[in-house]
Write a structure and sequence with these properties.
alpha/beta, 2 domains, Metallo-beta-lactamase, Chain A, single chain, binds flavin mononucleotide, binds fe (ii) ion, Rossmann fold, seven-stranded mixed sheet, elongated, 26% strand
């Protein structure tokens, strides 16, 4: 666990977590950090208190002592969000200290009780409520419902102009030496932008409407530092991550980089021949291609890559009168995540009846994905010259269609 003073009287405790599945699903190929913050005035508050993934509170207590905070002197636990990656410590803390106050929204209060047992130590806060810690440290609370869960809020410290944004403005990716935007090399900036896209698309994209409202709310604050619950802090240019999140919210609704993702699968290589042909055409046209072979690709990477692309090619054969299941499952997952409005072209091989195309229409309809399709190309067995010509024409049409969706 690392300890860094991020502003006068405010410390961050940050730990890297690896080799786990985030939310029990998402591979975190490059790890993830969990950030907690201690604000010291005359009274002391901990924001998003996190114990190690090991669940050992002693790790946290030891680290607190090293920054001169006796855990027993903590007066307030500020719970921006009850998901256990931010709140997992409450139950344990209650064992070492009697009199402390949990500050959270009304929706979080219910979760405190249902997760960790009834508590009479809760103070429910509403928009704009404040808590004066003394010594110039004053917190205010700002609910942002459904920025991930219904219970979430932002906390703002007016003395140092720090916004503790919890899941909002977060990113996957572990932090090694550097924690602030102004310390990062250009490679690290690029790394965290990619990890931000993966985090947003895997964890947050379903809540895009709420995130847009939270972006608007953020614009109302005078901000020196954005301090999220996961990933880097922004003090040189807090606007950068606000703008990034604005762009990601557009990716969720059909926008994307000037890239085409080929989401594909093939049992015996017939569809694969056409995939290789499509890749060559895209290279000829100077468009970045991302090949995602299902089921070999991780769901985390698949979602992130399709999410950030303005164009998508689905290449999948028919399997038992439906679409090749790993590709169908990937599409359903994108539908659940509400990745809508993409420009798309599909092709695939069949043996006798076909059926993939019908299932594709069902998946898109069922998930209300509003994907904008170029007419599909289906071929019997191996693709013939005339099939390849139709595929090339489909790709050219896709490239035209996606032009208006490019957001860089
Ligand atoms: C397990 C299995 C199920 C299949 N089910 C169908 C089907 O229901 N209808 C159909 O037209 N073709 C079906 N086929 C044939 C394939 O769609 C056809 O062989 C196609 O060329 C496979 O393309 P691929 O090599 O890209 O996987 C099936 C093939 C397999 C191996
Ligand atoms: Fe969360
Ligand atoms: Fe989180």
């Amino acid at each position: 666990m690392k300890k860094i003073e991020i502003a006068e009287g405010i410390h961050m405790l940050s730990m890297n977590v690896e080799e786990m599945l985030f939310e029990g699903i998402w591979e975190v190929a490059n790890g993830v950090t969990l950030n907690s913050y201690i604000v010291k005035g005359e009274k002391t508050a901990i924001i998003d208190g996190v114990i190690g993934w090991d669940g050992v509170p002693e790790t946290l207590y030891k680290n607190l002592e090293e920054i001169d905070v006796n855990p027993k002197d903590i007066d307030y636990l500020i719970v921006n969000h009850m998901e256990p990656d931010h709140s997992g410590w409450i139950e344990n803390f209650a064992k070492i200290k009697e009199d402390f106050t949990i500050i959270c929204t009304d929706k979080a209060a219910r979760l405190v009780n249902s997760f960790y047992g009834d508590s009479d130590r809760i103070r429910i806060v509403k928009e704009g409520d404040t808590l004066d810690l003394g010594n110039g440290k004053k917190l205010s609370f700002h609910p942002t419902p459904n920025v991930h869960w219904p219970d979430t809020m932002l906390t703002y410290e007016s003395g140092t102009k720090t916004l503790f944004s919890c899941d909002m403005y977060g990113a996957f990716g572990k932090m090694e030496k550097h924690h602030f935007d102004d310390e990062m090399t250009s490679e690290e900036v690029e790394f965290f932008e990619k990890e931000g896209i993966r985090y947003y698309s895997n964890v947050m994209t379903t809540f895009t409407a709420a995130i847009r409202k939270a972006i608007q709310k953020t614009e109302e604050f005078d901000i020196n530092i954005i301090a999220p619950g996961h990933g880097p802090l922004y003090r040189k240019n807090p606007q950068k991550i606000i703008d990034d999140y604005g762009r990601f919210s557009q990716y969720a609704e059909g926008g994307g980089k000037n890239e085409i993702s080929i989401l594909w699968g093939s049992m015996y290589g017939m569809t694969e021949k056409a995939v290789n042909f499509a890749e060559k055409i895209l290279q000829r046209e100077g468009i970045k291609v991302n090949k995602l072979e299902m089921p070999l690709e991780s769901q985390s990477e698949m979602i992130a890559t399709v999410f950030r692309s303005a164009g998508v090619i689905i290449a999948a054969p028919t399997y038992e009168y439906k679409m090749f299941p790993p590709v169908a499952a990937a599409l359903d997952e994108l539908g659940r995540k509400k990745v809508t409005g993409k420009a798309v072209f599909r092709f695939g091989s069949y043996g006798w009846s076909g059926g993939a195309e019908k299932e594709l229409a069902e998946i898109i309809e069922r998930n209300r994905m509003k994907w904008d399709f170029v007419e599909s190309v289906e071929f019997e067995g191996s693709p013939k010259q005339e099939d390849l010509e139709k595929i090339e024409a489909g790709i050219m049409e896709l490239i035209e269609k996606m032009k208006e969706k490019i957001v860089e």
